[in-house]
Design goal:
Elements lengths: L1 H15 L4 E8 L2 E7 L6 H18 L4 E17 L3 E6 L2 E5 L3 E16 L8 E3 H6 L2
Antiparallel strand pairs: 1-2, 2-6, 3-6, 3-7, 4-5
């Protein structure tokens, strides 16, 4: 019993520390589509940060110092879960099942399309790779 409680707390701490997952799909040598999916514990801001950091890592790996966001979208996936069922003794040895309350949780997500540059382009929505990677 006590061991299970510690395990549950350790698992919650481990999950809470996880950043949203980001993935990259290269469209050409200078353009990438980046997606990120968060869990119910993440904010849209954390998902956006994850996408920007992934764009910066991808740019750096390919020898670029800047990236421009060409396209961006965000949203959420919704998950509904039911609470535990409780059984109420209605007398005379009969029990009635009472379903627990259902809750709906939002799991934020986002997608960006970026283009990588070696020198800073004169354009809007340009990010410096070093600055993004330095942000905590």
């Amino acid at each position: 019993e006590k061991k299970m409680r510690y395990l549950a707390v350790a698992l919650m701490v481990a999950v809470a520390g996880c950043a949203p997952r980001a993935s990259t799909s290269m469209l050409d040598s200078q353009t990438a589509a980046i997606s990120a999916r968060g869990g119910t514990i993440h904010s849209q801001g954390e998902v956006t940060k994850s996408m920007l950091q992934e764009a910066a890592r991808q740019a750096q790996q390919r020898g670029f110092d800047y990236f421009q966001i060409l396209q961006a979208s965000s949203g959420a996936d919704y998950v509904t879960t039911g609470g535990p069922t409780t059984f109420v003794n209605t007398g005379g040895g009969t029990f009635m099942a009472m379903p627990g309350p259902a809750t709906t949780s939002a799991m934020p997500n986002g997608d960006i399309v970026v283009r990588f540059y070696k020198t800073r382009p004169d354009a809007p929505n340009v990010w410096e790779v070093k600055a993004v990677l330095a942000a905590k």
